[in-house]
């Protein structure tokens, strides 16, 4: 089955066809590092992670790039307030973001780009836009002329025709109903970090940053997927399209994937509203990272999700249900493998895939898993043959490669990995550490990690 995704650009569910299979060029708007990311932000990153993992499950190779917005109005204001240099102010938030991604089992991007390290490329892009009449300088800043791009407004589908004011706006964030010539390069203010440019000292606008980083990362080729939260559709992504397509004369992105905002008590969770929880807040209160991840991804990414502590408790119960089932799976033994178990697992796998193929319907995919567990809990009373166990665990491990929310019993190791682990143990015992290290690397290329413990090697599948 082909994966179908809702494309914000067309507004409909479309078959996902990458331009250069098996590779998928995917770009995610990363965090603005002026504070710790809140769990609303992580709803977007976790949904993007589910998408990435499911593409990988389907055999695609995802070239994933994310940026870090480490210079913008907010980071500059934050640094100023704390009397710190911009880099010193943003560094701890960048580190915290990396740690939080890890805590939530969100796979890191293959490449992470920082705005402050991509300034020359930004200047180059702005010069190109100026040469082709899409940008104009004014008082040391440079603006994008939106009337020069006929497709402006196609992504957000706002009736911007009537609302194109021709006025210029300097801020990174501004009124979301009116299209205005937005700033590509901002003239430096006193005491602000600034870089040299043909227009004098200044710094890039936020939209410029993402366009330049994504285009450079993919060598100016069309991206397959661009992801972000729904608030980025306008003006950020609309502006990214305008600049990028005017600079390259090519389609910028084929599929736009936008995640609906996480709400708290029916309101958008936002740093500016003060109604937000960081991941750290919740962990300090004793909540489990995997339960938080479960809450964030178990509701369809385009459906409203209201964060509640009850929801978090239920997520924990769901995770425990799988845990308890895995324990039950070990008990008893049946002499014959069961055809019925195999058929049930196969049926669940196909329901699981069908649900995810349908615009990443996570809720339905998980209910296929829980229906299976419900049935197998009854069968567990009779015990399982080891082939049944392997078949069930094989499926649950695959589910977990996509969802990464369960802590499962180890699936029995594939014979070749088992042989490598044994050979590595032998090498270690004979103190042939060079060989044992080589074997560890080979085991890693097969998707497993080995940790040496006092009880012998512990092998884990890389999620
Ligand atoms: P920011 O750091 O503000 O640039 O946001 C990082 C990402 O989080 C962007 O993709 C935003 O769209 C997304 N985001 C912000 N608030 C929420 C929310 N309440 N729920 C889901 N995603 C959000
Ligand atoms: Zn962006």
UniProtKB/TrEMBL annotation:
ATP binds at residue 271. SMART domains: DALR_2 (SM00840). A motif ('KMSKS' region) lies at residues 268-272. It is an enzyme of class 6 (ligase). It catalyses: tRNA(Cys) + L-cysteine + ATP = L-cysteinyl-tRNA(Cys) + AMP + diphosphate. Its cofactor is Zn(2+). The keyword Aminoacyl-tRNA synthetase applies. Its EC number is 6.1.1.16. InterPro entries: Cys-tRNA-ligase, Cys-tRNA-synt_Ia_DALR, Cys-tRNA/MSH_ligase, CysS_C, Rossmann-like_a/b/a_fold, tRNA-synt_1_cat_dom, tRNAsynth_Ia_anticodon-bd. Keywords: Aminoacyl-tRNA synthetase, ATP-binding, Cytoplasm, Ligase, Metal-binding, Nucleotide-binding, Protein biosynthesis, Zinc. GO terms for molecular function: ATP binding; cysteine-tRNA ligase activity; zinc ion binding. The keyword tRNA processing does not apply. Binds 1 zinc ion per subunit. Residues 351-413 form the Cysteinyl-tRNA synthetase class Ia DALR domain. One of its GO terms (biological process) is cysteinyl-tRNA aminoacylation. It is found in: Cytoplasm. A motif ('HIGH' region) lies at residues 31-41. Zn(2+) binds at residues 29, 210, 236, 240. Pfam families: CysS_C, DALR_2, tRNA-synt_1e. GO terms for cellular component: cytosol. HAMAP family: Cys_tRNA_synth (MF_00041). Monomer. Belongs to the class-I aminoacyl-tRNA synthetase family. This is Cysteine--tRNA ligase. It comes from Candidatus Abzuiibacterium crystallinum.
